Structure formats: C-alpha cells, structure tokens
C-alpha cells in the first residue's frame, strides 16, 4: 500500500482500513487479527493483503469456519492482554456470533463489577446490490446497537474508516465495526500523517437549510447524491453522517433538524424496528416543536434480499427515491 | 491431522444401465458448470458461482442411491447436487440469471436453488447452515414413518461449524435416517483443510455415535456402493451415518478465483485432473467392461452438449420477474 | 389441568399455554414439541407438565442443550410436514438460534420462490426482576421484529396467550412467541370453549381521552396500573396492547394517539434501537398533526441487567415511573 | 452410550501438606454451600443458586494443580471453582446477596463471580458460554509467552453446545495451553446425560486432536494427579487436553429443586453420598496414612465452620450498592 506522505494522497476504503490496522499493529504488539482466510488470502475482499507478510502468522491467524468459536476466543484473548481484531467476512454471519457478542463481550465488564475489560474489535460487512442473495446481503447493525456494552461504528469514507478503526482498536470496549462491502474500491483522500476520529461525533457532510438527511455508511453517498439533485430543484439539504451509532451524537442531529424543520433518516438496515426508528424518534422528541413534517424513514425493504437484479435494486434507497421523498416532504413534489 | 482412511477395495461392477446413467449424469454436471463459467466470463450472470467441476462423482454416486422422494440439502457449491437429484438445467440456468422461470423465480440464485419436486430442500449459502434442516427432514420421515432418507451434503469447511456436531448428536440419539456427506475437496476457500481441521474427520462421526465410512470421491462406483450401504441402513431404521468423500475442485473457489498459486500448485491441480478424473476413469471402465464403446460415450457427450446449449438459450431469453414480485412470498 | 367448561373459568398463564398446546396437539398429529427438559420435567417453569404423559415421548422430545441444533431441526421438520413447537428456555438463548431463525427459517419461503414453507413456532421467555442476572433477564424480541419473514407474538394475559398460541401453531410461517417468565403464575379468565385470536389486531385494554399508553407483554399490567393512578390524578389514559409486534396493528395505535394527542410506548426490551423507537415513529408519523407532545419512550435501562435487587428494580419501567412520565407529558406534573 | 473409561489405578500418596490442604478446601466448599442453602431457605438470598456439594474433589484436585496466575472459567455451578482458585467466602457471600462488597459489587450474583486476583475469568450462566473465553486466555498465554495455563470447567451438558467443538479444534490447531474439564455429574438439570449424549465423551476429545483422560471425580488425589499431568503438559507447550471427571451432585439442580424422584432415585443419591463421598473418603485416607488423626480433621471442620459463619454475617451486614451504580461500568 502507498505510504507516500502527501496529505492529498488518495487511498481506497480497503487500503485505508489496512493502513489503519498496520499502524496500530506496529504501535502495539498486542494487536492481532483472526478470521477466515485473513492471512495469505488477505480476505476474499483483499482488505488485509500484505499484513501476514509484515506481522507474521503469529499475529494474523487463519481460523477454521467457526465464527462463534473464534469470536469467543477473541473475548478471552481481549480479557487477558491481547487486543484482537476479529474478522467476520459477511455481516450475515453475525447471527453465529451473537451469544459471544451479546451474552459475553457486552456484559463481562459490567457483570464483573468493572474488573475485567474486553478491548476487542469485530470487523464485518454490510450492504446489498452485490447480487449475493439473502444470506450475504444483510445490514444487521441495528441488533448490536440495541445491546448495552457494545459500541457500533459505521464509516462512510476511507478517511473515516481509518480514523475510526484506530480509535476502535484503542478503545477498551467491544466495538463492532461495519464496512460496506460495495465501498472497498472507492477512493478518498487519506493523509499520511497519523490521525484518529473520536466516537460519538457526527459529521455534517453538507450544510443546508430546508431539510436534514441523516444517513449512515453506504447511504451517505446516496444522501449526498440526492442533495445535489435537490439543489437543482431549489431545495437546500443538510447531510449528516453520525459515523458511530453508539455512542450516538444526538445533539448534532437534533440541532440540524431544529434548523431545517424537516428530516429523512436513511440506513441500509431493514426499515422496521431498527436504526431509522431510533434516530427518527430522537429527532421527533428533540426537535418536536420545530418539525413541519413527520420524520421520514428510509431503510431496506422489509423482504429477504432477492438475488434477481431488477428486484434487488428496488429493495434499497437510492438517490432518486431519497430525492423524491425529500421533495414530497418539502411540499415541492 | 492424519490422513483419513479410505475404503480402498474396488467396488463390484454395477448394472450396465445404472453405470451409463451415472456416466451421463456426471457429464451433465460438468457441461452445465462449463456453461456457467461461460456465462460468467461473458458477463451474462449476475454475481458469482461456485463450480462443482471435479466433484461430479460424489453427487451422482450418492443421488443414484436415493429415491426421488428422499431429501437432500445442498451447499453454496450446489449445482451438482441439484442436477444429480433430478433438477432441470433450463430452470437452473434461469435461476442463475435471476429469471422468473428459475426454480426460485429468480429470488434465490446460484446458492439457493430448491425444488420440492425432487426432494431438494435447498442449497445454502451459510456453511453448515443446512445441517439442521436435513436432520429435521429425517425427524419428519421417522415420525411420520414415510420411509424417506435425508442426505446432508457439506464441504469439509463445515466441519468448523459447531452446529454440525449438535445435529449429529441429535440424529444419533433419535436414530434418524440421515446421512451426512462430507465433500473433502481439500480447501475451504483459500486454505488447505489440514490448517483448519485438527484430529480426524471420521472419528468425529464415531464420537457422536454415527456409522462412518470414507471413500474415494473420484470413483463414482465406490461412492455409490458406500451410499447404498449407508442410505439403506438409515432406511432400515438403523440410524445416521457420516460418509467422507475425498475429492477435488478443479477450478477456483468461485468463478472469479483465477490465480490460485498462492494456495495450491498448478501441478497438484494437473495430477487430479489427469490421474483421477471421475468422468474419464468411469468412461474407460465402461469401455473396459464393454458396457459402452467410445462412440457411445461421444454420443452421450454430444446429446448433453445440445441439452445444455438449449437450456442456456432458454434462460437467456427468459424474462425477469416483474417488480411487483419483490414483496411477494415473504410470508406464506 | 382443569377442563371444566365454564367461561368464567380461571387459568394461570402457564396453564393457558399448556391447554392451547394440548388442544392443538389433539387436533393435529403433526404438532410436536422439542426442547430442553420439556418432557418429564415439563420445563423448569412447569409450563408443559403433563403433555408427555398425554402425547408420548414421540411428540414431546427432550433434547440436549443444543439450541442452535434443535432449532435448525425444527426448521427442517417444519419444511417436511411436521409443525414443531420449539422451546427455548430463556429468551437470552435466542443469541444461539439467530442463524437458524434469521438466515434459515425467515428466508426459506422467499428464497425458494414460495415453494417451501416453515410452519414452526418458537416459544421463549422475556423479562427481568427475577434476580437471574444479565444472561437470564433480557427481552430481545426487537431483534426478530427487525427481520422480514418472521412473525412476533407478545401475549399479556392467559386469555391472549392461549388464543394467540393456537393461531401461531396454525400459521404457515415461523412465529416467535414471547412469554413473560414472571407472568406464568398469574391467573386470568380463559373460557373452556375453543377460540383463537388473529394476528395484527391490537386490543384496547382501557379507553381514555388524555393520553395513549402503548404497552407490550409484561408492560401491559404496568400500564394498566399507571392508568389507575392517572385516573386518580384526573388524567384519562387509554391503554393499548398490540399483542403481535409483527404484524403490527398500526391503525389502532395511530387512531388512539390522534384521539388523545399524547402517547407513551412502554416495552421491556432495551429502549434504544428497538421496539419503542419503531412504535413511537409509527405514531409520530401517523398522528403528526395531532400530537401535542413528543411521544415518550420507556424501555429497559441501557445496562446489562444487574443482579442486585435494588439495582435491578430501577432498570425496568414501573407503574410509578410511567405515572410520573404521563403526568409530565400532560403538563400536570 | 457406552460407559466412559476411568483411570482405575489409585494414585500414589501426595505430600502430607498438600493432602491436608485439599481436604480443608473440600470442607470449605461444602460448608460454604450449606450456608448458601441456608440463606435460600431463610429467604435471605435473592434468586436461586446451583450447589457444588458432592463435586468438591473436582474443583480442588484441579485448582491445586494450578498456579495463582493460571486462568479458570467457571459455570452456573461455580462456587466450588471460585473457592478452590482462592476467592474469599465473605466477598462471595456478599455477591450472592447482591451487596457492594461482593466480587462484582453485587451486579453479577451467584452465576457471575469473577476475580482477576485469582485468575478467575468468571462464572457463566450460558452453558458452554465460557469455552471461548478460556481458549482465548490460552491464546494470550501462548502469544505473550506468559507460561500460564487456562482451565475451562463445564458440566457434561455443555457437550451439547457446538461451540465447545469449535474451540477444541482451534485449541488443537494452535496448540494452546488449555485443559477442558468436563464435570459429568450425570444430569443436565432434570435429564440423565445418556439421554442427551450419543457416542463417547472422551472420543469427542480425541476426534478434535486433544489429549484425553477420564478420572474418578470423587477421588481428589486421582483428580489432582490427572490434572497435574495435563496442566504440566499444556504448560510445556504440548497442547490442549480434555479431562473427564465423573462425579455427582448431592442436592437439586438448584436450591429450589427439592423433589427429584421423577428423574433420579433417592437410593442412587444415597449410594453416592455414603460410598463415594470425596471428603469422607479423603478423611479416612488421611487417617489411614497417619497424616492426620480424627481430632485434627474435627479441628479443620470447626475452623471452617467459624470461617463460613463469620463470612455470612459479614455479607448479611454489608450494604447494597447505591442506586447511582446501576449505570456505572457498562463501558470501560
Ligand atoms: C458461516 C459461514 N462462514 C463463512 C462463509 C464464507 N464461505 C463461503 S464458502 C466458504 C468455504 C467453504 O469451504 P467448504 O465447506 O470446504 O466447501 P467448498 O467451497 O470447498 O465446496 C466460506 C468460508 C459462509 N458462507 N458461511
Ligand atoms: C445455552 C444454555 N441453555 C440452557 C441453559 C439452562 N440451563 C442452566 S443449567 C442447565 C443444565 C446444565 O447441565 P450441566 O452442563 O451438566 O451442568 P450441571 O448443572 O450438571 O452442573 C441448563 C439446561 C443455559 N443456562 N444456557
Ligand atoms: Mg472444501
Ligand atoms: Mg451435569
């Protein structure tokens, strides 16, 4: 990966993650990685290519296909002095790790009266439209957001991915880090100088006056695209990326809604009983007296993700559907 | 990990008709998969697919020991199982292209083909994900006394999934008519199975009370004979079994896995293809046994080529499901 | 269990469930039960006592402690002709069944283009304040509500438990049935005559004018208690029990909010990224122009459930806290 | 399921001091648990508790083979493990009563006692839930070359949890210093283990590449000798092991499980209590070996009684945590 020091340097999302990991592994010998095909193969998405060559098989461990087992191993390793970064290839496989994450990792610190800690990061993916069908396309981050004791990170750019991952690795709590698998090849500016991004600080991606678009991970690009279209239609949209869902920067979100008086929450997880309901409620409560229209929620359609391309494409919010919803909300449709 | 035992003994000759049918079925699987690769390289297929080329003898040898009403569960590498159990290539190709004429109306794709008419409970994209389903189907067969047997196909990578041992234990306790078929093609994606599998595979079956047997997965007659022993035993109510089939995938983990030198050598691939090809070896055996002459085998291959060509054309021409279908069949 | 036919007959919550199961098992030989200690022991909560004696070990199967395995077995059994009722002792163990529920049961029908069905019921528990600590006190129903393909039932009385369970067993889809473990001994009227309760139909437990209390499962009693206190304070509260969270009777909930113009959503699951956010959003959107105050959400405190009684008791909404919140919302605090 | 093998050979005499300490430790566990039952019947303890009475030799024999810095993970039936590893009764009772002076400030309770000072990674209320943690601790020990060994206690019911086999496989592949200790007390709640366990327990370890050994769990010297073999082997870097200890719980699954006839006979309980009591037998051995006379053993019991009485009084008098603590320590 290119290490030339120019702050205008561009890296792909995958390269940014790899660089963040590499920097932390150089800094702290306790940081190690394990998961399926993470070593020589560098994962099927090639996110970790080169790390085993630099850090050796002692710190980059290929595991059997045992998500529950090696996630549990991560919890124990984290409690006793390592700082494991566990790789779960597809977010759909979180189903297999829930006991270790929820009944173990999330509760160890509290149940032990604050004596044991679990400084573990679990990296996994989300996102549809890859033609991978129902068991390889889900965005299940709402589940872990629901559970006290876990932190949840949702980067939307190479810059954020690197800065948030370094923060996650140094955090003393279990952190679930979601990467949009469709974003790995996207490029963005990533300075060579070291930097970190704190949790719980949303980013205003674009300022606006008429409507607030709160978008996460894969949906941030969609929201920015919709904002451009809206500008053309004379609607000024403010786009906010919470970047971490827990902790959640309610203040920035609510203040924006107070200013614009209209809001849409866009998240690639299922629309019901998940992230959009939470953020919409935070807005509806925090900006109640300012809102001129109900908060609109846009998530994945309430169906298992279909394989057939023309069907799959309509299960996820797009620039166009967000644009249409925003115009309607602003009474300009 | 110590090399797994394999029943070395060559199997007795099988009836000519069955032998020919098994040969044809293997050829159908191979040529089907060649078309799939073609569709991928021509960018006509959405997503990826995991080809069964090289492993044909396993699916065919086992499914020929099953009745149409018997159940199978399959994997991400499932085209061979589907065909061997009786699925039609045209509807399979249609599914791979996401067309309405597909077995799942295009909603499932390559990794989720299911077909009640042939007892196919479905391919599964979760490694080890179908082991519970196969076991449950066996529970139904026993409870309702339907005389059916259930076969659970899985790659050796699924040996890493704890649920496999949970259901093996359940099957043994309830004496269920299920045969767990481990297709050890040596690799889980890009890692050799010895790096992910400690101890001994067959002993894992024994430890949970299963009848176990290992067989050369490139010898369709050996696979078939072993399958018959274990399937009939299960049908007689004598309980579940684990059948280990040692085999090899000729091509990549999926159609996009082209450069493989970093995890296995070209020479290894060559040796399996030239010395242990299940179709080539079965063909030579048929000729040796005077069951068929080269021309007859040529004829079979020609017929199958035409069948696959027509099936692909059907699928390419077939329409996509209409958008309204997107939220249909979420609930029964 | 008492079978005397008098429609004023009272049964406990546990007896009502047992009777519903027994009736369905008599009616349909395909219905069977499996789980840990469900046979002779009749479960640790004694909910199933007597069933193995009537229906035999062939239909009431004791399993090993293999939640993932026997839930998967349930999926396969349901696909092929049985109608299994799977028993998961504590809702906290859903963590072990998520792959079978979410990647298998919920998706089989859709992924197979509508050809295979999964008529399976999974019964489990929820609820805290039993002094069972963090791994035996969670209410994780929001997770399954988030997943298309599953139905989610939350009975709050013996009457509802029996009627909804019979409907669940006859439903051709996977149904997750949550029982409040603290409610098993509570009595209520259950007519001896057969009846069923349809999914997706909320019940107005008490009519009121000033505020709507939407409560689920264990929280319905709490809401009714709070309503009594509120009446004393001159506030007329309407209490609504959705009974099933998916399908969700949005109409009844929204219409009540439109009428009262104020609402509190009370659910024993964690308050963030779960049920309260969904229902509050449904109300905020559906009754937007009627609401005089933001919808208030009350759920379990965002902490692992502590063992220590004085701590545990303050993690869950109570009559008093709901009463106080309602008065505040009505500007009478 | 065929009966599990047990190393019949009686173990050589252990040093007098160690023998006495093991005797005392067993007595401490028993009298601790009797106090717990007392607290329950006097309605002074919130919730339930799972008593270790009858199984004392397992925890003591194994923990006496460990260093203070070695790790253990425990279960819902964990009081014996905690005490054997060095926890203090007063803070344990305080935890059972939900008091601030408890090991977890009252937040964990009976099923979650943890204590970094004695290497106790925590009891666990999820059957099999701590197997990953114990394995991870062994990974740390190996990676950081700390020379520590990790012991994972679990009841035979955890043999039903697939995760156990996932981590055994991982431990064998990475040659981790972990010993999995299966406490087979014959019952999982209210079901005999033969109804839930097919095949053979020790073979399950072998199948995943572990060193295996079975031992009479009522003979503390036998348990200790076996533990030393396997713990030292692990410490030498020779890999993980499975130790099966055959034992019995004298009382109910939990303190509220009074009427047990429907799942086991009073006679069975009597036989274990009279013929195979680990404390009684060890006491007789000590006298036979002239290591101690009856008076000395009486003295030990008396001292322990006083210790437990004082510890309970401390716990009863101790204050609850203040309400503000409820949302502290959710995050580090
Ligand atoms: C639970 C789960 N983990 C990981 C994956 C990703 N994955 C898909 S195929 C595969 C390798 C499977 O190897 P094997 O079982 O041997 O089958 P083969 O591909 O060799 O036929 C992996 C890891 C998955 N689909 N499911
Ligand atoms: C995953 C899980 N399933 C079920 C339970 C409920 N449960 C608690 S203890 C127990 C029996 C455990 O038996 P065993 O492992 O033999 O331990 P023992 O009680 O005999 O010491 C069960 C089923 C649980 N705590 N965790
Ligand atoms: Mg393989
Ligand atoms: Mg036991």
Task: Give a quick account of the main beta sheet of chain B: strands, pairing sense, barrel closure.
Answer: 5 strands, parallel
| Most extensive interface between two protein chains, with residue counts | A-C, 51 and 51 residues
Fraction of residues in β-strands of chain A:
15-25%
What oligomeric state is this? heterotetramer
Q: What characterizes the major β-sheet of chain A?
A: 7 strands, mixed
Extract low-pLDDT stretches of chain A: none
Secondary-structure-based class of chain B equals: alpha/beta
Categorize the overall geometry of chain A: globular
Q: How does the overall form of chain B come out from the CA principal axes?
A: globular
Give the number of helices of chain A: 11
**What is the topology, as strand order, of the major beta sheet of chain A?**
3-2-4-5-7-6-12
Ligands bound, unique: thiamine diphosphate, magnesium ion
Structure description:
The complex is a heterotetramer, with two copies of chain A (333 residues) and two copies of chain B (332 residues). Chain A has eleven helices and 14 strands. Chain A has helices at 13-27, 51-55, 67-80, 98-111, 141-145, 158-170, 218-232, 250-260, 275-286, 309-312, 319-329; strands spanning 10-12, 31-35, 60-62, 83-88, 121-126, 151-153, 175-180, 187-189, 203-206, 211-215, 237-241, 244-246, 263-270, 296-300. A seven-stranded mixed sheet of chain A has the order 3-2-4-5-7-6-12, with helices on both faces. A five-stranded mixed sheet of chain A has the order 9-11-10-13-14, sandwiched between helices. In chain A, strand 4, helix 4 (98-111) and strand 5 form a beta-alpha-beta unit. In chain A, helix 1 (13-27) runs parallel beside helix 6 (158-170), helix 7 crosses helix 11 (319-329) and helix 8 packs across helix 9 (275-286). The longest helix of chain A has 15 residues, at 13-27. By secondary structure, chain B is of the alpha/beta class. Chain B is built from eleven helices and seven strands. Chain B has helices at 16-41, 56-63, 79-84, 89-96, 131-143, 162-173, 201-207, 220-235, 266-275, 278-288, 294-317, and strands at 71-73, 150-155, 178-184, 187-188, 191-192, 211-216, 241-246. Chain B has a five-stranded parallel sheet with strand order 1-2-3-7-6, sandwiched between helices. A two-stranded antiparallel sheet of chain B has the order 4-5. In chain B, strand 2, helix 6 and strand 3 (178-184) form a beta-alpha-beta unit. In chain B, helix 1 packs across helix 11 (294-317) and helix 4 (89-96) packs across helix 11. Mean pLDDT of chain B is 96; it is low at 1-9. Classes of the chains: A alpha/beta (333), B alpha/beta (332). Chains in contact: A-B, A-C, A-D, B-C, B-D, C-D. The interface between B and C is large, with 47 and 45 residues. One thiamine diphosphate sits between chains D (50, 76-77, 125-127, 155-158, 185, 187-189, 253) and C (36, 65, 67, 89, 93, 96).
